[in-house]
Amino acid sequence: MNAQNIAIVGATGAVGVEILRVLERRNFPVASLKLLASARSAGKTLEFKGKPHKVEELKAEAFKGVDIAFFSAGATRSREFAPHAKAAGAVVIDNSSAFRMDPKVPLVVPEVNAGDLAHHDGLIANPNCCAIILAAAVWPIHEAAGIRKIVVSTYQSASGAGAAAMRELEDQVHQYAQGKEVTREVFPHQIAFNLFSHNTKVAENGYNEEENKVIEEMRKMFHMPDLAIVPTCIRVPVLRAHAEAITLDLERPLSPAAARAILAKAPGVKLVDDAAANHFPMPLEASGDLDIHVGRIRSDLSNPNGLVLFVAGDQLLKGAAWNAVQIAEELAKPARAAQAAE
After folding, report:
1. Is 142 labeled as catalytic in the residue annotation?
2. Core-most of 5, 6, 151, 282, by most CB within 10 Å?
């Protein structure tokens, strides 16, 4: 893998910081590193491989000489600055919702549809965190038995709303424990010791923006425009890993034992399914892990072709930063690089 000149847009945000950590964790070959953020954050320093790197202000001319630009500063910034990065010759891996449903832009979870990277034109979209976790967990099942319908309920951590939301959860816990008034600024409702429907606008179809993202993105990644998906997205008082309860309607019967055997060998998945000890996926254990934890695998007693499972995945890692770095690793593979050069 050849060394790459890297830029991280939104470097001081929760996902940007995780991208930096994952690049170091994976020993990704970084030739040079640019950390880009708003004018407010310019001048701060972040450490990479033991050396301090100064954060620069995000400007159109910042991408000269950059090979790969990770964007994690929101859709507005991506729409404004991604074209400049592309024009400078960088491949953009964008973590926002700006380009996900653009038919010309690959939407990629490497364990699912890495082949779609062959069709990128300098811009690749990182999917929604819930869609990534769901796709990685159920794709091996789909390959074995075909999925006709997915019913999924999500339990989404504060990290999905950024570092400020994580701080708000911690602050509210302290306030509650000290008998003080619980204050809120990031979320519309108290998050400590509470849960509520995902804090995005409800569309005319009755589903909120997060739920509609799951529907649309899963269909795109699976190349199944008519895939039936029924999501319910909920915020829960967990710091940084999402969980999902999933019910699958399959084309062919698949026993829980067969599903366990498949998932035990699946890339990006860790089987956590110990019924005797009542030990199944938990956000606490999934936090910090690059893999999706999958377990509680059982038959749907109402459907001979049904399978039920429970998963947990680190929203900041596989749900965002790690998936983006995985895409960069795929791009840097010799076969993929030769393909792109043709």
Report:
1. no
2. 6
